Amino acid sequence: MAPVYEAGARTCGVYLPSGARWLDPATGHVVEGGTTLDAHAPLERIPVFVR
Length: 51
Hints:
By secondary structure, the chain is mostly beta strands. It has strands spanning 11-16, 21-24, 29-32, 35-40. It is globular, with a radius of gyration of 11 Å.
């Protein structure tokens, strides 16, 4: 999980460790590990990535 801590923010930086692929279950988007991305984080959703 990658909660947003800044008021008004709609994205947050998330580091996904290498050695795996990561799935965003809300969108079905798969990302290779070993990277940092700006995850979409509207008020009604906490970014979650599943290995």
